[in-house]
Amino acid sequence: MVSRSSIQSEQGKNLPLEDPVGYSDVEKSSSVLSSSGARALLALAIFGLAYGADQLVKYLVQKNMELGETISVIDGVLRWRYILNPGAAFSMGENHTWVFTIITCVAAVICLVSLIRARATVWVCTLALLLGGILGNLTDRLFRAPGFGVGHVVDFISVGNFAIFNIADSCICVSMALIVVLVFRGINLDGTREEQN
Hints:
It is found in: Cell membrane. By secondary structure, the protein is of the alpha+beta class. The protein has one domain. 46% of the residues lie in helices and 17% in strands. The protein has a four-stranded antiparallel beta sheet with strand order 4-5-6-7. The longest helix has 29 residues.
């Protein structure tokens, strides 16, 4: 039987294990990026895709649609409807724009710090997607009318009778769902996995 701290060699000597930490406490994830450069490139690619797509499509919506205009994509299911949202995701809290701007700034900092600490591939992907969504909407709040910090977010995706949202909102929702799954599965930022009791 192998102990946590050593193994028995043929000559009878105890040799230290490379990773003696908690076989009963954690197990290593098989998908951990060992190179900080690889993690940075992956995070940058996913962040760039999410943030870039959000801002590009918002620009196209504003350039090609009139405020309040609706274009049917799939009858009764999907349509583009251009609105300006002063509230949070899905038009909540429309009278407290500046509060959501502050909250979004704090969330962006927390997300960035967590992303820098992340080693597991799945966490890097998830947090980069989340950061792209957060900064997509934060950009609107900081730089769109009516003014700095109280800018209105461009929303345009309307599904059935559901709220109107955008690509940034979608990135945030998908990444938050993934975070819930990762937490419940006990997968840590560093790629270790908590032993399930």
